[in-house]
Records
---
Amino acid sequence: MSAPPPPPAATLYEVSDAGRLQLKGSSTALFADALRFLLLAEGKLDFGQIAKAMADVPEPLLGRIALDLERKGFIRPVQSAASAESDDLSSLDFASYVPPPRISAEEREEETAARKQEAQRTLDKMKEQGYAVRIARQARSAAKPASGAAYSVLVVEDEPPLAAAVRKVLELERFSARVAASREELAAELKKPPLPDLILLDVNLAGANGLDILERLRAHPALKALPVIMVTAMSAREDVMRALAADANGYITKPFKIDVLMKGIRAVLGLG
């Protein structure tokens, strides 16, 4: 019996609570490619855009992954004519972000309790090793670089000496490094194709808060799945909880050691 045809390219997916648990829980039963598909689906990308982002996976196999996730109740296909606009970055503006509507008091209480537990686990990891990666969001295998060559890391840091030092280290480690010192420069860099494979985002920027920027990234359909590691001197549980709420992929505390930085980057990119 022949395999079913892949879904139409314009198919969007609604991720269920069970699917989100696979992404945000402490563990997952999904294999690497299924987890990547689910993460991109949560980022509001349609099947065609997911196939483009997962070009290393044959489309027939990708179709079977989508069908399996649907059968398990992790996603539900929906159609949307607006999906073709989700790659548009021309109007990207980090200064005009409007937070989404607040959830109910009961839902907020449940989420807060769960994030307090995860924040404490994250703090324990940060105290032990200087960085932490959200295991369920960590890549289980390395995706191909967006450029097709070296992995690209966008360093968002407003201290020129530190930004220059991090850029130099990344280049010595055979990464392609880009630098932005403000939200305006970040927006400009994200409008230059291809997108970076990872963003290192300082929390305390001049005239901007990195956590506000992270929330804006997660609100944009084309950027929601972009891996982001927060770099911060703020290590109170409340700070970590806010980063968790905005779906940060990792946390590195300042001041950091170079080997700690590179371990965090490789973990998030699935490079071991």
---
Amino acid sequence: MRKVRFGIGEFYHIYNCGVDKRSVFLETEDFERFLQSIREFNSQRPIGSLFENSFRDKTKLGNRVAKLVDIVGYCLNPNHFHLILKQRLDGGVSEFMHRLGSGYTQYFNIKHKRSGSLFQGKFKAIHVDSNEYLLHLSAYVNLNNRVHHVNDRSSKSSWGEYLGDNGNTRVKDIILKQFKNPSEYKKFAESSLRNILERKKLYKELENILLE
């Protein structure tokens, strides 16, 4: 039973890592498949597999099919991922993550000739209970590869989308509308990340002192 209860219109930090901290993204194609899954499994209507969904005429559906969640931000690192989700429908987060996790695991196991669980148990979820928390979390998630010293070629994040490369502008606007322009957000996010890393370093130093 989860301690976190998912509510409509609420924001959540969702994350998980590979079982035994193994890598879950081995190639560029793996990152792209996960991102495709994020887009296509985010639908109130069951789509079956991504292969089956590729044959459907999406132009006839238009915007009639409700989304389960809004994707506010993401970062995919070699052995784990972070998402910021806003629940749109009752049970949306749980349903979306179930489809995403099971669909990607099936793809990964077939491609890389393995079996069994890929992720470390149920996904982790933290309720984002304030706007300030949401803003700083967006910086942490968008720049999470820097937290773990992973280069840009070995990770994928929504950072570029926030700076204007591409992506779902409406969802990004949840964050960006609070800044004059993407450049101002960039300064905020990089400053926020520095503060997060400094606090993390101080915490580790304090922990080492207490253990001596």
